[in-house]
Amino acid sequence: MRVQPRRRRPPTRLRLVTLVAATALTAACSSAPSPGGATGAASGWAGTSAGPTTPASSGPSSVPTSVPTSVPTSSDSASSTPTGNATGTPTGTPTGSTPTSCAPAIVARMDAGERAGQLLMVGLDAGASRTSLDALVARRHLGGVILLGGWGDGVDRVRATTRHLASLASAKDTAGLGMLLAVDQEGGAVQQLRGDGFSRMPSATAQGQGSATALTADATRWAGQLRAAGVNVNLAPVADTVPASLGRANGPIGQYDRQFSSDPERVARMVGAFVAGMRAGGIASTVKHFPGIGRVTGNTDVTASGITDRRTTVDDPYLEPFRTGIQDGVELVMVGSAVYSRIDPGTNAPFSRAIVTDLLRDRLSYDGVVITDDVGAAKAVADVPVGQRATRFIAAGGDITLTARPSTVPTMHEAITEKMAADPAFAAKVEAATTRVVDLKLRMGLARCS
Fold it and tell me: DSSP class of residue 363?
């Protein structure tokens, strides 16, 4: 299926200032924190693979080792091949143009198991062996890993882990596609990577008190640290707005100062600044938790109570930070697991077509990669059968299902492939979702056209 070009508004003066600042500096799960640390990105970005990968000797595409200097985004042509530069530094910037992409041709050569695997991201806990996911990646053709549990030992251990994970990519095991290697690096209480090589990041609330230009500069530096650690996706920034009247009574965000502000317009400015800095540093970013979890009291990771938002509507001003991220070309959008009674009563957002397709894709014109918050261990979705957490998300219009529990991956993978075989309409949705993921990987230098 053809990936449609993303629509963007012309950059404002603020965006021009922040992007210029970010360019000048380039040379230089989303869950609440646990005792060991916190647990738990589309078009127009010339990204990079972070950390070494191992070329495949055969297969539909070889695993890339360099960064594209021109970034394809959507066509059926499979003739262009991304080329790299010596340093792996991003060389492109967001534009209104629509370069070509060979993603549909790559997906056409993938079997059902390979397509399903690209739509799953699994957690690797800080206490687990770096090789503990090897068999799972190979057998289930997984497309991404998120580091969870709080990695406080500094950059060397993280880099050794991401180097190993990147080396798992091969024509046989991952259809020749590199791995999305993600972290939650927001700042404050939610900063997965700490220690030597990582700055202590202030909370988003503290970040939001400065200027947008300063935040872009800081985010560029933080992105460089992630890149040096072999990470290529940051599941940040938080685009949720917590009303001042609720404040710390908001369990998932306000309690931990994860919001930039209680003013959605200011949140939008800071979201744009953070995304610009991440992009300048070569890291894909993610706005979360769509359509906003700032008005609930319960934390969806640990409870199914107090997670219904009774105020948010499809034209709510609290959607503005997400709209800004989308119009600025953010690489991923994460959907939270709350319920929105004025949009789709009784349905968790990841399983709601009204939210994922009608609101996010159609009303906000987002055609990039959509990822869930953790649906492997989260209490908010505990009543939904494990396999259906993936299939219902895809049916709603989503792409990557994130699970913190490796044990859930086989069930999710099998549910996707079995439903593909039984339901041609669902198989078409998987094809579209996989195409979006592959298209992102092409832009990040994690895939080649030939």
Answer: I
Taking only the tens place, the pLDDT of each residue in 130-178 is 999 999 999 999 999 999 999 999 999 999 999 999 999 999 999 999 9
Closest C-alpha among 160, 110, 100, 165 to residue 136: 165
pTM, rounded to two decimals: 0.82
DSSP assignment of 231-286: --EE---B-----TTTGGGSTTTGGGT--S-SSHHHHHHHHHHHHHHHHHTT-EEE
Question: How many residues in total does the chain contain?
Answer: 450
| Average pLDDT over all residues of the chain | 84
Q: Residue 287: beta bridge partners?
A: 333
Across 389-393, average pLDDT: 98
Structure tokens at 409: 């991956």
Cα gap 310→275, rounded to integer Å: 29
Q: Which two tokens stand for residue 174?
A: 């991952």
In Å, how far are 150, 189, 266, 339 from 380, measured between CA atoms?
22, 22, 29, 9
Residue pointed to by tokens 């360099």: 66
Cα separation, 158 vs 137, in Å, equals 19
| CA–CA dist 116, 384 (Å, integer) | 19
The span from the CA of 9 to the CA of 140, in Å, is 39
How far apart (Å, rounded) are the C-alpha atoms in residues 240 and 248? Answer: 13
Asked if 277 and 325 count as a contact pair (C-beta separation under 8 A), the reply is no
Residues 216-272: tens digit of each pLDDT: 999 999 999 999 999 999 999 999 999 999 999 999 999 999 999 999 999 999 999
pLDDT of residue 30: 43
